[in-house]
UniProtKB/TrEMBL annotation:
Superkingdom of this protein's organism: Bacteria
Domain DUF4130: 92-259
Source organism phylogeny: Bacteria, Pseudomonadati, Bacteroidota, Bacteroidia, Bacteroidales
Pfam families: DUF4130
Stated name of the protein: DUF4130 domain-containing protein
InterPro entries assigned: DNA_repair_put, DUF4130
Record NCBIfam families: SAM_7_link_chp
UniProt source species: Paraprevotella clara
Length: 267
């Protein structure tokens, strides 16, 4: 067995199984890293680097150990936090899993532990962003009858909202596209499929997510104007509270919200 080194760095693929494999390797090698980074990151110059090869069997052994120590909600907290894509999460998440495996009882409510607190707070942020995306997705009907929506969330929550829309619009064809991460999910009435587009595709020429006249259904603009009219009609001017409005509907989402876009008649 190798002894612990003070400057060791683990490199992994930033997947859940990859992280669990890294935990397995750490216990097996008796080498707990000072940092754990993604494959695209550059390790420190003089660090002792261990490149983790994701192994489902190793990951499964660690996961079964976690199941004995943590509740279902705590496990969901760990897996969901990964969707934050935060580089600062890697080491706290790794240490959380290591501590959970070693502990005699669950550590999930020990918020005095900085790793538990950091991972839990990250999970809450991702969960909140998921909720907002479920609220703020606005579909447009294309010429071929597909419903299209573009989003740009702070965290990679698109996989987390797909089940919601698959259930709610189970008989429709739709595409939700994450412009920042350049991928989407297409649903055709029975199964959602992850999709990407080649460079130069029309979707990249939609800075605010609005379909061009040639791409949209002939009645789409009429429905959009109706929605904007409704949005204005239910607004009670005497009760306007811009500060609360921006809190409930942050400005960073407005670009893709139909009710916040200028209509054809207002241009």
């Amino acid at each position: 067995m190798r002894s612990m080194t003070e400057d060791s760095v683990f490199v992994y693929d930033r997947t859940w199984d990859g992280l669990l494999t890294a935990v397995f390797d750490a216990f097996y090698r008796h080498q707990f890293p000072v940092a754990i980074i993604g494959e695209k990151d550059t390790p420190p110059l003089f660090a002792v680097v261990h490149r983790v090869t994701t192994d489902e069997e190793k990951a499964g052994r660690v996961f079964r150990a976690l199941q004995r120590k943590l509740s279902t909600s705590a496990l969901a907290c760990l897996t969901t936090s990964l969707f934050s894509e935060l580089p600062d999460l890697d080491l706290p998440l790794f240490r959380y899993v290591c501590k959970a495996v070693k502990a005699g009882q669950s550590i999930e409510t020990n918020f005095a532990d900085p790793d538990v607190l950091f991972v839990t707070n990250t999970y809450r942020k991702v969960r909140y962003e998921r909720l907002r995306m479920m609220q703020f997705v606005r579909f447009q009907k294309t010429a071929d009858g597909t419903y299209f929506a573009m989003i740009e969330p702070d965290y990679d929550v698109l996989p987390l909202i797909v089940p919601h829309f698959s259930d709610r619009f189970s008989e429709e064809c739709w595409l939700i596209y994450d412009r920042r991460r350049r991928y989407g999910y297409y649903y055709a009435g029975h199964k959602s499929v992850r999709v990407t587009f080649e460079d130069g595709a029309e979707v990249f020429r939609l800075p605010d997510g609005r379909l061009s006249e040639a791409m949209r259904d002939e009645d789409e603009m009429w429905y959009q104007e109706m929605w904007r009219t409704y949005f204005k009609a239910i607004c009670i001017k005497e009760r306007l509270n811009p500060r609360k409005h921006r809190k409930d509907m942050p400005v960073r989402y407005w670009k893709y919200l139909t009710e916040k876009q200028i209509g054809e008649q207002e241009k």
